[in-house]
Write a structure and sequence with these properties.
With 119 residues, the protein is an all-alpha fold. The chain has helices at 2-29, 45-59, 77-98, 107-111. The chain has 4 helices and no strands. The longest helix is centred in the N-terminal third of the chain and has 28 residues, at 2-29. The structure holds heme C (2 copies). One heme C is lined by residues 55, 59, 78, 81-82, 85-86, 89, 105, 107, 109-111, 115-117.
Length: 119
């Protein structure tokens, strides 16, 4: 009886530790994005999500305009277009900065709430 109690306690301890491990693994994974080609690979997902909200608003679209909501890391034709736009925006800002200009351009500068900017 005493042994049984002891065994339960030990097993209980293992189970708790087991849960702690399996629980902490997905939490750690949540920090890392899997398929970055423009952002530095180790960019925090929180930073990316904040940017994503801003760029969605700038284009007047929802996340699924570019993403498969089941797998945000999966590529799409629209994601590739957006990547080229990110590279173009980054390049423009690098030039502006090098020339001593203070302000930067963003997706909103051109898109202003439209999928395709109005000229
Ligand atoms: C206009 C297109 C576009 C829209 C809209 C968009 N995204 Fe993205 N998203 C991208 C691109 C492009 C990347 C990849 C960036 C790179 O390669 O560095 C990306 C990457 C991500 C990633 C990282 C995925 C991984 O694991 O690699 C997450 C998370 C994400 N987006 C979430 C969102 C959410 C949430 C929304 C809506 C609020 C959203 N995105 C809207 C284009 C878009
Ligand atoms: C200098 C102005 C400019 C900036 C800055 C800019 N875009 Fe664009 N974007 C355009 C123009 C112009 C088009 C239309 C190109 C065409 O189809 O001829 C376009 C088209 C797109 C498209 C394709 C839309 C479609 O329906 O085919 C996406 C996606 C896009 N931009 C995302 C972005 C994102 C995300 C940003 C910010 C990182 C951004 N753009 C910044 C000018 C800009």
């Amino acid at each position: 009886m005493r042994n049984k109690l002891l065994l339960t306690t030990i097993l209980g301890g293992f189970l708790t530790a087991g849960y702690a491990l399996t629980f902490s693994a997905p939490v750690a994974d949540a920090g890392g994005a899997k398929n970055l080609k423009v952002y530095p690979k180790d960019t925090d997902k929180k930073v990316i999500k904040k940017d994503m909200k801003a760029l969605s608003k700038a284009l007047g679209v929802q996340c699924d305009f570019c993403h498969s909501m089941a797998a945000l890391d999966k590529d799409s034709e629209m994601k590739e277009k957006a990547r080229d736009m990110m590279r173009m925006t980054n390049a423009a800002n690098k030039t502006l900065k090098a020339k001593g200009f203070k302000k930067a351009v963003t997706c909103k500068t051109c898109h202003n709430g439209e999928k395709v900017p109005k000229n």
